[in-house]
Amino acid sequence: MAVLSLRYNHKRLESFPIGMGDTFMIGRQDANDIVIDNLAVSFHHAKVESIGDEFLLIDLHSENGSFVNDQRIKAHWLVDGDIITIGKHTLLFSNPKNRNLPDKMSPSIVETMQMDTEKFRELLNRNGLKKPPRAKTLPAPTSSLAFLSEGRKKLPLGEHPVRIGKAPTSDIVVNGFLVGKTAAVINRLEDGWYLSGVGGLARVKINGQVVKAAVKLNRLDVITLGRLKMQFLQVA
Q1: Which end of the chain is more exposed for a tag (fewer CB within 10 A), N or C?
Q2: Contact between residue 179 and residue 199 where contact means Cβ atoms under 8 Å apart
Q3: Beta bridge partners of 147
């Protein structure tokens, strides 16, 4: 079983076993599964989600960002030995099952920014970690989202995550008191596109069913959130 070990100042505070089908929310608010009481941490900062037999770290549009092995990420496939930095705390990801995996574990949807911090580099060197492999080049997008509830053009789906919510910086902005700043995320994986619910009282749905975990999108699926209604289109 995979384990996330929370650390502060090189001291282990707590360990969190994470199994198949689990989703762990990380943030400053008490409702999270892993609570980090630090002002540098957003209320809902990031989450680790089980997809198949692999684990995906997703940054939830946090103010200060999430880092994995010297890189700022939006989404990252976790492998054994990865160090996640959130605020002043770190989470060590341990999973013997995917130790020394080949290139297929490359973070295909990762979008990175170099973190130029000597202290963090020293931490990496001390733990003997290597930078993750380069992201794979994915084929040109063949899928899109068609908006059924408003007169907007189709949104092509590409390599980067699509964030849905009421935050002005969202890729798809949805207004509504009950809609979360980041309510849902669509991620592109090697076998297709997956929709994940993130936050807010208004829940994202696929074909009328509330999305509780990452769900693979199928051709002509209808996605709804508040007043938003759109359809997933895919070239056969």
Answers
A1: C
A2: no
A3: 230
How many whole angstroms separate alpha carbon 107 and alpha carbon 52? 15
Same-fold call for 2-126 versus 143-234: yes
**Pairing between β-strand 23-27 and β-strand 34-35 as defined by DSSP bridges:** parallel
Is this structure's pTM higher than 0.70? no
Query: Please, what's the b/e burial string for 191-228 (b: 16 or more CB within 10 A of its CB; e: otherwise)?
Result: eebbbbbbbbebbbbbeeeebeebbebeeebebbbbeb
**SS3 assignment, position 45:** coil
Q: What is the pLDDT of residues 111-152, one digit of tens each?
A: 333 333 344 445 445 434 344 444 444 444 478 899 987 667
Complete DSSP assignment for 126-144: HTT--PPPPPPPPPPP-EE
What's domain 143-234's architecture? Sandwich (2.60)
